[in-house]
Amino acid sequence: VIYSNSNLLANLINDILDLSRIESGKLTLSLTKFQIKPIIKRVVTSFNQQAKSKAITINLNIPPKLSSVIADETRLTQVLLNLVDNAIKYNKENGEIIISAEETNSSIRISISDNGVGIPENDIPRLFERFYRADKGRSREMGGTGLGLSIVKHIIQAHEGELSINSQEGFGSTFSFTIPKA
After folding, report:
1. Inter-CA distances, 21 with 9, 77, 117, Å
2. I want to staple 72 with a disulfide (CB 3.0 to 4.6 A). Which of 3, 29, 62, 84 is the partner?
3. What is the CA radius of gyration of the chain?
4. Shortest CA distance to 128 belongs to which of 98, 155, 168, 92?
């Protein structure tokens, strides 16, 4: 494969190295206690221009008082960056993204919902496989390595969290994950 964009090649190499470390058990998490709301706000701010270019609105539905989490802040940021980036890429012009958080007894559940293209039902079980793309042609034109969701899955599993997806083709998707409360 020849990459005309050096950033894409650098991203691919970084993603492969990350995934290799994660899958081999050589990824060590630096677990700390922190509030997740400021991390979410920072991630959203980093995508303001990209969202604005497609007239996508990003709304937060996060309670004012949310328990702290115990997680690797860098890796959790990586998860959020990937999921918000996908929500923008696969959304429609004038679309909407809602990022919500809720507490359970032992964890915080974060959900990123969009009203974009959605995912065909038969593709959902394979979404978290390396290099799998539900819409091969569209994915290539938008960039990306095809490793992001696999990395997300492994990072959430390393935190002993759960990852789920709910999607309907033509109506959007919701990716949710849990992270242990402090």
Report:
1. 18, 17, 32
2. 29
3. 16
4. 155
Residues of the chain under the 50 pLDDT cut: 1-6, 8-9, 11-12, 136-141
CB-based contacts of 151: which residues, under 8 Å, 6+ apart?
Answer: 15, 18, 19, 22, 78, 82
Beta strands in 14-134 (DSSP E): 31-34, 57-61, 69-72, 96-103, 107-114
Distance CA 99, CA 120 (A): 22
User: How would you class 4 by CB atoms within 10 Å of its CB: exposed for 0-12, middle for 13-18, buried for 19 or more?
Assistant: exposed
Neighbours of 67 (CB within 10 A): 15
Q: Dmax over Cα atoms in the chain, in whole Å? A: 49
Alpha helices by DSSP H, 35-133: 37-46, 48-53, 73-89
How many residues does the structure list for the chain?
Answer: 182
pLDDT tens digits, 71-121: 999 899 989 999 999 999 999 999 999 999 999 999 999 999 999 999 888
